[in-house]
Each structure stands twice: as C-alpha cells, then as structure tokens.
Amino acid sequence: MRIAILGATSQLGKDLVMSYMAGGNELVLFARRPEAVTQWLAGIGAPGRYKVADFDRFDQNERFDAVINFVGVGDPAQAAAMGASIFDITLRFDELALTYVRAHPECRYIFFSSGAAYGSRFDKPVDASTRSLVAINHLRPEDWYSVAKLHAECRHRSLPDLPIVDIRVFNYFSRTQDMAARFFITDTVRAIQSGETLATSADNITRDYLGPDDFYQLVLRILNATPANDVVDCYTLAPVDKLTLLSALQQRFGLKYEVKAAPAVINATGAKMHYYSTNRKAEAFGYTPTKNSLDNVLDELALVFSSDNGR
C-alpha cells in the first residue's frame, strides 16, 4: 500500500510512521517543515527510509492508496496561541486531501479528528447517542478547535460515496511524547524527572489513554476493511481516573504530588471531567484494544525512564 502522510511532524504521525517501519508499505511524508522530518528520520536511525516533501509537492496525479491527515495542533498551549486560525489550517489541508480523493475515489482517506468535536461538556463520557453541543450564541476562543473538527466531520459525511473515516482521538500517550507540552500527563512526567512535587486539583478527572500499538492497530483495521464513510472514537480496554493514575505513578516511579485548590492549567478546548468515549463503533472495523489506559501509560513511561537512564 502506498500512503501519503499529511502532517508528518505531528506526534501521532511520527508514531504511525515508526509502527509502519516493520512492514513493506511505501510512505510519502508531507510536512510544512520537511527538513524537520528528514532530521527526525536520521535521528531514529532511518535516514532516507521514506520520501519527504513539502505540501507544495503533493501531486494530485500521483498514485496513493490512502491519505492520512494529521495536520493540526496537539498541544493545548499551541491551540490557545493559534486561536481562530485553526479554521483556516484545518480547511486548507482537509481540502487538499478531499480534492485528491474526489479525483481518485478508490483512495482511502483517514482524517484525525478529536473528541472535542462533541463540544466542551464532558460531565459524563460520551457514547453513540451523544449530541455535539455548541453554544452558538456564546462562542468562546476555546470553542474554535472543537468547531473546526466538527465542521470537517460534517463535510466528510456530506460525501457519502467517498471512503473517508474520521478518527476522534481523546487522549494519547507514548514514549516519544513531547514532554514539554502542557497536558496533565506530561506535567506529571516532568515532575518525576525533576523530582519536584506536582500540584494538582482535587477534581478526579478520568481519561482514556490510547497507546501506539492500539493506535496502529486501529489505522490498519480501517485501511483493510471494506471502504466506508464513517467516524469512530478511540478507546482502550478501560479508562483511568486521575487519583488512581497518580497513585500508580507514585508507587512505580516515585512521583511526588499534593492536592491543592485549583492550580493553574491550560484548558484551550474547555475543561473536561470525563473526557473519553464508550462508543464502540470501531468494533465494526475489527478493532479490539489490547491494553487499558493505566497499562498504556505505565508501559510507555517505563521506556521513557529506561531511555533517560541510558543517557
């Protein structure tokens, strides 16, 4: 299979490329900063393994069996800084892929959406019957990311004859994560590495951390299934609440933490108490998760700290 990866500098994009390295698929990696992708490939011991190009080199006449679009932002601080321009960026690269798929309707298109497409209310986990909630008369800057993803999904469903599958990512963690990013999980990693005490609120949020292996499995299942125009939510065997995760990190890696009243955090897409889904539609593509959230985090962190100790 020949696959175009749009947004190859993204966290998910890099992890998918690394997972693909064991196979014989031909990947073409497109990025706004192709030199960064070339340097990254060299850094992981795979110089020249795949063709790397700027988006301007995306040839509508070139043959691809699939286009996978990772373009976007993965860091809440970046999302907050980007503001309303997320609309233009999302639309631009989505249209790049859609133009290709319209001309080559046999080509699969996977678009990476977000659980944020449901809106900003997560007082309970979402499911197959959950409606997206947008405060249309009171839109706030933290809504831009959510609405941009929702808009893209609506465009894709309006093209039912094209093989487009949107994957909503809620939470993801891997050993290659940018630990400087402003997520709760990366805040805990930095606290472990520095030996400082993590200050956290008493809000016992729940998250469902997908890992690289099941992420790769989900992509493969979709690409190998009967072509469809659909959307799926990411999920593991089970989510994990914050206090359980903190306790496990304390026991396993010596995390020091204390519960305080509302420490400063970045909520670029809104506060979410139960940010995960119980929608199991991905089963229709043959997806079956192999790990739960806690094991995903602990296993990936063991590799992070093993690597740190080896330096």
Class of secondary structure makeup = alpha/beta
CATH architecture: 3-Layer(aba) Sandwich
- For the terminal residues, how far apart are their CA atoms? 37 Å
- Helical content, roughly? 25-40%
- List low-confidence stretches: none
Query: Overall 3D geometry?
Result: globular
How many helical stretches? 9
Overall CATH class: Alpha Beta
Give the averaged pLDDT, no decimals.
92
- CATH homologous superfamily, by name? NAD(P)-binding Rossmann-like Domain
Largest sheet: 7 strands, parallel
- DSSP strand content: 15-25%
Q: Give the SSE order as H and E letters.
A: EHEHEEHHEHEEHEEEHEEHEEH
Map the helices and strands.
Blueprint: E1 2-6, H1 11-20, E2 26-31, H2 34-43, E3 51-54, E4 66-69, H3 76-82, H4 86-103, E5 108-114, H5 144-157, E6 164-169, E7 171-172, H6 184-194, E8 197-200, E9 206-207, E10 209-210, H7 212-224, E11 230-233, E12 240-241, H8 242-253, E13 256-259, E14 274-275, H9 293-310
Parallel strand pairs: 1-2, 1-4, 2-3, 4-5, 5-6, 6-11, 7-10, 8-13, 9-14
Antiparallel strand pairs: 9-12
Helix pairs in contact: 1-7, 4-5
